[in-house]
């Protein structure tokens, strides 16, 4: 990953992963407002009660700065050109690890159509073959059955339980860890999923891991 590797846009119509833009502010705020109850159980929170809210503009500035440094890949997920959620590759580690992890969320009105499966598969393929990472992991709360179906359908390996792993919805929450390495998908994860999964089963999306 180099400083020149961002911005990046990935497309598998009708799904596209692209950088968030300042002009997305109104659509992002409206999407989050309409889906507040849907997303709240899975949203990351700060253990510091004094932590101040971050403006959308400041968030986009920080995410793009991290991306240009090769530390993350913070995509907006769009469906048919409409902002529908986010797919965020973070914790990119080089050296002997060559790994990262992925988080994601989607609005309820866009769920159930396989859009997150497509977005996550594109993101993983980009990490493994363009960024040349070796391993990507996804950590999911045990209660989030919809997200668990995503990693199951995409064929990520279960690696174990992480106790009190992330601060989610106001407390430290256990997570289940899933991973995939480049050797497991020589033809790409999106290709494998679409090839091995009947179209009527390429559905059912989560809120967020």
Descriptive notes:
The chain has 209 residues and is of the alpha+beta class. It has a single domain (3-201), classed as 3-Layer(aba) Sandwich (Aminopeptidase), CATH 3.40.630. Helices cover 29% and strands 31% of the residues. It has helices at residues 25-34, 36-39, 56-68, 115-130, 145-154, 189-196, and strands spanning 10-12, 15-19, 73-79, 82-93, 99-106, 135-140, 157-168, 171-181. It is globular. The model has no long low-confidence stretch (mean pLDDT 93).
Give a brief outline of the structure.
With 209 residues, the protein is α+β, with helices and mostly antiparallel strands. The protein is 29% helix and 31% strand.
Q: What is the CATH topology?
A: Aminopeptidase
**Shape designation:** globular
Order of helices and strands: EEHHHEEEHEHEEH
Can you tell me the CATH superfamily? Answer: Gcn5-related N-acetyltransferase (GNAT)
**Strand order in the sheet with the most strands:** 1-2-3-4-5-6-8-7
Largest sheet: 8 strands, mixed
Helix content: 25-40%
Write the layout of secondary structure elements.
Layout: E1 10-12, E2 15-19, H1 25-34, H2 36-39, H3 56-68, E3 73-79, E4 82-93, E5 99-106, H4 115-130, E6 135-140, H5 145-154, E7 157-168, E8 171-181, H6 189-196
Parallel strand pairs: 5-6
Antiparallel strand pairs: 1-2, 2-3, 3-4, 4-5, 6-8, 7-8
Which labels suit this protein?
single chain; 209 residues; Aminopeptidase; 29% helix
